[in-house]
Automatic annotation (TrEMBL), chain A:
Cofactors named for this entry: [4Fe-4S] cluster
Enzyme Commission no: 1.21.98.4
Protein name: PqqA peptide cyclase
Pathway stated in the Swiss-Prot or TrEMBL entry: Cofactor biosynthesis; pyrroloquinoline quinone biosynthesis
Catalytic reactions on record: [PQQ precursor protein] + S-adenosyl-L-methionine = E-Y cross-linked-[PQQ precursor protein] + 5'-deoxyadenosine + L-methionine + H(+)
Domain Radical SAM core intervals: 14-230
Described purpose of this protein according to its UniProt entry: Catalyzes the cross-linking of a glutamate residue and a tyrosine residue in the PqqA protein as part of the biosynthesis of pyrroloquinoline quinone (PQQ).
PROSITE patterns named in the record: MOAA_NIFB_PQQE, RADICAL_SAM
Gene that this sequence comes from: pqqE
TrEMBL record, chain B:
InterPro entries: PQQD, PqqD_bac, PqqD_sf
Protein known as: Pyrroloquinoline quinone biosynthesis peptide chaperone PqqD
Biological or metabolic pathway of the protein: Cofactor biosynthesis; pyrroloquinoline quinone biosynthesis
Summary of subunit composition and partner proteins: Monomer. Interacts with PqqE.
Length: 383, 98
């Protein structure tokens, strides 16, 4: 989501959801240690059917949603992806596929193109196969991803690559950007991993030190100059980790403001991380999307500023950053109504500072990361 | 300073889409994972670009069509608005020309 779509409705009437993220499945051939899926994803058994997804798309579009992402897990695991893309496009959505590239081949790229898919974003784990294999738990994935990135470009799509940065790959940023350049990328998201889901579990092993981060920012700036000199149009978007910011981000443009996620089992969430909050979320199998968006307790809970506590409540910036992220507040303080501790005004900011100090110390080896897979997930399942 | 040539043919950047959104009551420009919410004149101008309607259209055609459509407005003003908007849209990377 970009700044241009910020239409945060703080205190005003609730606006329509403009963004729908369809998490088609939690199944994935990779096991990335920073996955944003819930820790207990293995508890989700019954994915929405094709018909149920089409109904979700139809309802969301009627409410005004226009941007949509097909995500997961790995959305290509669903054999009905092409059907859903075609339906979404017919309804007038701008359709983005957010994928690891695994499960893609020439025939599927062609089928997705024929279905009207607007955009494909492929994730890369690293510049070299060894680091990629260690963090994603798959030795063959890297070469496959590179081949698929080339095929996507050859099919006429802009090549948008997403690289999640963390302490084990951020020092190789120069090589990572060089690889993206060589692949012919049109845009690269250098997204420092944010500490939710599996990433939070592995935080000590993932958060880069401030020194690493500053070096990476300098590397990015140098590449931007070099690319401009060559007249090469490859946009580099560098996303700073929340833990090194002084003010929190306006998470999702505000809770229930413009963004809606539908999880594989039909749970409707204000963002893809919110599922781990100690509250229950409505499900499209029980209620209509419109009722869920406008009337449910879950979607109204953190709308506006009535729920805020100090220091947010009397802060001049509360409508700019909407108090930050509810998930981050909960993960760091145990209280989802707290000010996001990323904020230097938060009484809990010392927790973020402690994490930064930790990150300055020697890194544990990559092998110490807990990989995201069904076996590990069962540990977190309540039933 | 860059200028807009009357014979240039502009079109949306590949993969971008102009669309009328009934729910928002305006045209939007959709692109990978984002959206520009357009005002009336921006929507009207982009809707005249090459690829939006039949036949190839250069800047002079776009201006003439809009002058015909908004006959009450001063023709010179429309031409100036179109040139200014295209310059800005090209600078922002929304549109490209040959």
């Amino acid at each position: 989501m970009t700044d241009r779509t910020h239409t945060t409705a703080v205190n005003g009437a609730t606006g329509a959801p403009l963004w729908l993220l369809a998490e088609l499945t939690y199944r994935c051939p990779l096991q990335c240690a920073y996955c944003s899926n819930p820790l207990d994803f293995a508890a989700v058994k019954e994915e929405l059917s094709t018909e149920e997804w089409i109904d979700v798309l139809t309802q969301a579009r009627a409410m005004g949603a226009v941007q949509m992402g097909f995500s997961g897990g790995e959305p290509l695991v669903r054999r009905d992806l092409e059907t859903l893309v075609a339906e979404a496009r017919r309804l007038g959505f701008y359709t983005n596929l957010i994928t690891s590239g695994l499960g893609l081949d020439e025939a599927r790229i062609e089928a997705l193109h024929a279905a009207g898919l607007d955009h494909i974003q492929i994730s890369l784990q690293a510049s070299d196969p060894d680091v990629a294999a260690a963090v994603a738990g798959s030795p063959k994935a890297h070469a496959k991803k590179l081949a698929m990135a080339r095929s996507v470009k050859a099919a006429g799509y802009p090549m948008v690559l997403n690289v999640v940065l963390h302490r084990h790959n951020i020092d190789r940023l120069d090589e990572i950007i060089a690889l993206c350049d060589e692949l012919g990328a049109d845009a690269v998201e250098l997204a420092n991993c944010q500490m939710y889901g599996w990433a939070h579990l592995n935080r000590e092993g993932l958060l880069p030190s401030r020194e690493q981060l500053e070096t990476a920012e300098a590397t990015t700036a140098r590449w931007r100059e070099r690319l401009a000199e060559r007249g090469r149009d490859m946009r580099l978007l560098f996303v700073v980790p929340d833990y090194y910011a002084e003010r929190p981000k306006a998470c999702m443009g505000g809770w229930g403001a413009i963004f809606m996620t539908v999880a594989p089992d039909g749970a409707v969430l204000p963002c893809h991380s919110a599922r781990m909050l100690p509250m229950s979320f409505p499900n499209v199998r029980d209620r209509g999307l419109r009722e869920i968006w406008y009337d449910s307790e879950a979607f109204n809970r953190y709308r506006g500023d009535g729920w805020m506590r100090e220091p947010c409540r009397s802060c001049d910036e509360r409508h700019q950053d909407v108090g930050g992220c509810r998930c981050q507040a909960y993960l760091l303080t145990g209280d989802a109504t707290a000010t996001d501790p990323v904020c230097s005004l938060s009484p809990d900011h010392h927790r973020v500072e402690a994490a930064r100090r930790e990150a300055g110390a020697a890194a544990a080896p990559m092998e110490a990361l807990t990989l995201r897979n069904v076996h590990e997930s069962r540990v977190f399942c309540r039933t | 300073m860059a200028m807009i040539e009357s014979t240039s043919v502009y079109r949306l950047r590949p993969g971008w889409r102009l669309q009328w959104e009934e729910a928002q009551g305006r045209h939007v420009l959709l692109y990978p994972e984002g959206m520009v919410q357009l005002n009336d004149s921006a929507g009207a101008i982009l809707g005249q670009l090459d690829g939006q309607l039949d036949g190839q259209r250069d800047v002079a055609d776009v201006v003439a069509n809009l002058q015909a459509r908004f006959a009450d407005a001063p023709a010179a003003e429309i031409e100036r608005d179109v040139h200014e908007f295209l310059l800005d849209a090209a600078r922002q990377g929304w549109i490209q020309h040959d």
